[in-house]
Amino acid sequence: MAEKQVSRTDRFWFAAQRLTGPVVKAMYNIETDVVDIDGPFIVIANHTNNLDPLFVAYAFPKSPISFVASEHIFRLGFVSKLLEYFLAPIPRKKASSGADTVKACLRATKAGRNVGLMAEGEASWDGITMPVFSATGKLVKSSGASLVTMRIEGGYLSKPRWAEKRRHGRIKINVAGIYSPEELEKMSAGEVFEAITKDIYYNCWEHPDVSYVGTDKAAGLPRALFICPRCGHVDSLEAVGDTVRCFRCGATADVTDNGTLKGTFGPENIAEWDKIQFERLKNLDYVRESEEVFFSDKNVTLKQIGPGHKETVLGDGFTLQQMKDRLVCGMCTFLLDDISNMAMTQAKRLLFSYKGSYYEIKANDTSSMRKYLAFWQNREPEDK
User: Fold this and answer.
1) Which residues sit opposite 43 in a β-bridge?
2) Which whole-number Å values give the CA distances from 350 to 128, 133, 192, 331, 379, in the listed order?
3) What pLDDT does residue 2 have?
4) Closest by CA position to 149, among listed 195, 106, 103, 104
């Protein structure tokens, strides 16, 4: 029998494992299960941190994986070309139907490649695993590949999505389940979906035993938390060092080494605060900036993303305004009824599909784009 041909992607994978593995594992104090399984397979993990694909990769030293990646990394010029050449990522256009991504994943597994994805679609804001895309079970069933589910513990508190600096604690990469094609054949798409949802679920606030030590632990927190739970005002929060403060009512809280909040706001962790602000979002009439505007941000950049990841800058330094029935960015108006999908990537890029076109709004360093997403989600809560 002829030996399997080793591709450049395979060679890069093996080299990267040897060269970066010891360094990154020590840097983040990573403990990982190791999986040795014949492919093709689909590996699915919870999404806690921008580096999750790297963390998961260390569990598969002998099995190169093509990870599904946010479309914006294909717009980084030379860096994108390197990533495509060596790692063959699969693009995922957030705030879109995702049909092209599903087809690309199926083509990859049919060709014998392994595929990795974070089934939530974006990293958690509050340390709790978010809902899994409903079509994930059908994708796995259609692939004919094996399924490996992974649970990442500690990734969120090591560097929350909103944070500016990482903390030093511990990250554990655990195998939650391994399902053969024969086992998956006997399961319905709904049962596969339920198994994935159960396997990858993790709530970091239920595991307070590990400390994550760092400096400026509150820096960036107003990107995630945009409504004061005490006085109800929007964009009244400021973070300095380990402390977040509302300049409207004077409430304060310190972010501790296990990520909890100690102070006068009320909520003891970010997930509790998040729940409160989503409830407050249902009644914003009393905090409007004017008769029409609920909230706004200055100095944002609006881009239209075309075929081939081509960017067209429609305006820079625009003011973004949230109104009851529309989003206004500079001279452009987007009716909320005509926004078919909306999502975020990283902490300050808002993406949405509008009348067949695809747009990105990038904020300045201090703005919270998340409140616009939350406003749209609160108005359109059904799964898109």
Assistant:
1) 116, 148
2) 21, 19, 31, 17, 17
3) 38
4) 195
Q: Which residue reads 């059908």 in tokens?
A: 138
- CA distance linking residue 207 with residue 201, whole number of Å: 13
Reported as a single tens digit per residue, the pLDDT across 271-295 is 999 999 998 887 776 556 566 888 9
- Determine the length of the chain: 384
Helix, coil or strand: residue 98: coil
Cβ within 8 Å of residue 328, ≥6 positions away:
320, 321, 334
Q: Identify the pLDDT of residue 70.
A: 76
Q: What share of the chain is helix, strand, coil (3-state, %, to 5)?
A: 30, 30, 40
Percent of the chain at pLDDT > 90 equals 71
**Residue, of 87 and 201, whose pLDDT is higher:** 201
pLDDT one-digit tens code per residue, 81-96: 776 766 777 878 776 6
3-state secondary structure of 289: coil
The sheet with strand 252-255 has its strands ordered as 237-240, 243-246, 252-255, 261-263
pLDDT at position 75 = 73
**Most distant CA pair in the chain, distance:** 75
- Residue 8 predicted with pLDDT over 80: no
Is there a contact between 181 and 216 (Cβ–Cβ < 8 Å)?
A: no
Distances (CA, A) of 298 to 82, 121, 220, 317, 346: 34, 28, 17, 7, 19
Please tell me whether residue 71 adopts helix, strand or coil conformation.
Answer: helix
Give percent above pLDDT 70 in the chain. Answer: 92
Say if strands 90-92 and 65-70 run parallel, antiparallel, or are unpaired: parallel
* Averaged pLDDT, 355-383: 83
Mean pLDDT, all residues of the chain: 89
Per DSSP, the three-state class of 50 is coil
Q: Tell me how crowded residue 147 is: count the other CB atoms within 10 A of its CB.
A: 25
The CATH architecture one would assign to domain 293-379 is Roll (2.30)
Contact by Cβ (8 Å): 273, 267: yes
The single-letter DSSP state of residue 235 is S
Beta strands in 12-145, from DSSP E residues, in sequence order: 30-32, 41-45, 65-70, 90-92, 114-118
**Would you kindly state where each structural domain of the chain is located, as residue ranges?**
8-206, 221-280, 293-379
Q: What element of type H or E holds 275?
A: helix 270-280
